[in-house]
Fold this sequence. Notes:
The structure is a single chain. Helix content is 31%, strand content 14%. It is of the alpha+beta class. The protein folds into two domains: 7-203, Alpha-Beta Plaits (2-Layer Sandwich), CATH 3.30.70.3300; 230-335, no CATH class. Strand 7 (87-91) and strand 8 form a beta hairpin. Residues 215-219 and 323-342 have low confidence and may be disordered.
Amino acid sequence: MFKTFPRTVGFPVRRVVTNINEMLKLVNFYNGKRNCYVSLYSFELSQNSYDYTNTDIDKILFDFDSPKSFDNVKLFHKYLQNLDICHYTMFTGRGFHTYIMTEGKNIKHKKQALAAAQLHYANQMNFSVGYDHDCDIDKHIMGDISRITRFPYTKNLRTGLYSIPLPPDFPNLTLSDIHSLATTATRISNFICGTKLVDLHQFDNGNNDFDYSVTNIETLDDNITEDFPPCIKVLLNRKDCGWPERYPIIVYLRDSGLSELETTKILEKYLSPEKFRHSIFEERQVFHLYSKKNNYFVNKRRFQEHGCCVDCDICEIDKLYKKYDSVNALVSPHETIRSDTK
């Protein structure tokens, strides 16, 4: 599954590993103590950042996590089986992943080709794609070549069940049967089905027809930012703001009571398309910060360092976060989940 290097493993903070022994040593140490993830694709290291220029897109991920996930993954498995397409299915400890194996060397437009392939199979199955929990396929995965995925045979600490590959006859099992299998790291042999690799080159036409916008909430109120603190407005107007600047924006919106989708819509409106796509689809920063309520805000000093403090008579940031210690209790954006500085 993960034979090429370097790649990252995450617990959830990411670490670069350069060989299989290094990867397995870390995973074996953290398994059962923390959730364990691995990058779906390998990359090259370039000036301390991840370079996917020469990445081999050797698999396509489909994430099924809706209430219909078990029914959908069985239908998809049977469809691929009938076409003799090489694939395998993973139970993640809660939902399901399907991986289609590909011929993905020398793809020029990797993100676009991956998104086009994922959308093609979603359309073939009449699966809905979106952010809502009821959507058949999670839209966050579309075209995401920097995605991490749960490491096989590791425990999902939320459910206590293990991530395991499923045998080709899993449609004959009940969900309870699968949960029983996943109470331990049950080793499944011969879980790969089919023989034909999908040629990604047929999707490598450079077109970017996939809609990355957020369309499942009402149009954003034009006046929604009117009451934001001046420093937040300054940051929002920096279209190409980096992660240390996006961090306080997202956490402020979260702690002001806005929903995850409303925050995503605000970022879509103010960030450049490149920064929005990177933040939402590649790094899933809104999702991570909304999932971790212990990510506190940065203090006034951080705003001064980033040149966006406007020295208000009454600091709205201190007012909102007065329950936290203004210096010692707050988390720096450099101490949270990240894979690069984009």
